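tool=predict chain=A
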Amino acid sequence: MYIKLTLAALLSLVISLGLNRVMLTLAPRLGLMDEPGERRIHAKVIPRAGGIAIWLSFLIVIGSGLASGWLQQDGHVSWLWLGAFAAGSAVLMVAGFIDDRSGLSPWLKLGSHILAPTVCFLLHPIQTGLFPADWSYCFDYAVFVVWVVVLVNAFNLIDGLDGLCGGLAAVSSFALAAMALTNGRTDAAVLLLVMGGAILGFLKYNFNPARIFLGDAGSMLIGFFLATAATDAVGRKAVVGVILLPIAVAGVPLLDVLLAIWRRSARRLLLQLRGEKLEGGIFDADDNHLHHRLLGSGVSQRKVAGVLQGIAIVLAVLAFLPMLFGDRMLGFSLLGFLIVALVGVRNLARVEIEHTGSIIHMAIKLPGHRRRVAAALFLYDLLVLTGAGAAAVILETNRLTRGTSMDDLLRFVILFVILGSVALLVSRVHQRLWVRATMRDLLSLQFCLLMAAMATFTFFTLIYVSLEWSALRLTVMSYVFACIGVSLPRVALDLLRDFGMDARHRHSRLVAAGDLGPVVVVGAGDLGALLLQHLKSSPHDLYPGMRILGFVDEMQMLHGRRLGSLRILGGLSIVPHLVKTEGLKGIILAIQNPKKEMLDQIEALADQCELKIYRWRVGFVEE
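tool=predict ok
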């Protein structure tokens, strides 16, 4: 069996190598050439017909294997499945061919994304395993179409760098093949390995510097194939499989899609709040995809592709663990996903975070919005208090299976909501200026909720003496859940500002003409802290291209520590080293009354290293 699988993958690889070589010559005659442009990374004309070679290689290997009897019809590997896949993928290949040759409107492309799975499903209905067997095929059809549209667009959007889309697809194909073999699905493994071999043949000509591109036809084909082959490869693992399968198949492309939707929607809303002309839509291309951001930090194309493919491997492994070893590995996987998400948001979601922070800030500041914001927060608090009480009841009763009177528990939830709402209203928590919140404001909010929780416990136990300890557990859980839920939107803006500033100054970027470039702040005292607060609440384009490398301070006991998210790098003697390693362009002086000796030393360093000096001051000025 394993010999047959290996030979199938190798045969596909060899045929793909030959067909991609043919496409290098044939693509110019077909008009499938990618011209350099503003959003293009390459500087010369390159054929984009690799997707056609991959498609033909796959169909040739599977078709010849079935015709010769070398591949026996077994489950997925059948003429019926191959015909359905070929017909559905042909729709995408035609649409991709037209788009690669002369361009196709976004709506027509979306129509082809829906038509392709429709044709495939009509010829070979696919059971997703999400619904009972006696349910109508309409439910499976709807899920399948959505699944295909999402994956097709995910791989289409991520295809902007040499070796990136093909590399991610190869990772997904071989990972799914391994999963299929583990589940005893050799039929699905054959398809995945043959497609993986075809992709590897393409990658031979696609690694930087690329000689051929996938084209829209190729990237859409990959998304369509993985969507149709992934379910059977992994097996139907109920809820866990449904949640983790998309991450395993296309974690990085899906992340890029989510960021693109978030970014473009936030940008349009921000322009609308400012009263400016709306530019671009959800489907319009931009240059803020994951690979663009990593390239903008000075990383080479090969390294960017390697980093994103490494992330894809990590996500696939984390997603497969619970499917292979059961729920006991679910906690480990969730912890891994949380770490990856935090690192990703901190380093890759700078634009989205800054746009979202600006939207919240502007929406609150707009005239006439204060009462609406206060009303919205009050309604939100009611929902949170109700949800907190209900969640506590569900946990205390073991999902409502423990024999406790539901009427009593319902009265507890109602009492907690009423007393919690009264406490929040009495403390005027909805009238506080949360965009400038302090720790005192947050502690006051927690204290109000604590008083409400204690009052709820007191009144409840006076009426229901027998439920005293149950009421205590209910109260504690309700208070904890309410604290988290009620506090979250009120601290969200400050958290977004912190994340945005951290991401903005964390990694090196290419410095454009007129940018302030990398700078260091001299002085890690009060003025330095005030500078960070100022930057957090300022528009991200107020100081164009400025990136703070960290702080410089002559006090040795501070070296190596952090102020906010920035490190205290050392004394002034480290400045020449930063010029060589980080391209330092300027110094920000954040000391109220610096000594003359320090000023002379800074001026000497500025002259020696050709640095600009900026002065940061805060104080009263008499008119």
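DSSP finds 20 helices and eight strands in the chain. The beta strands are 33-34, 46-47, 518-522, 547-552, 562-563, 566-570, 586-589, 612-615.
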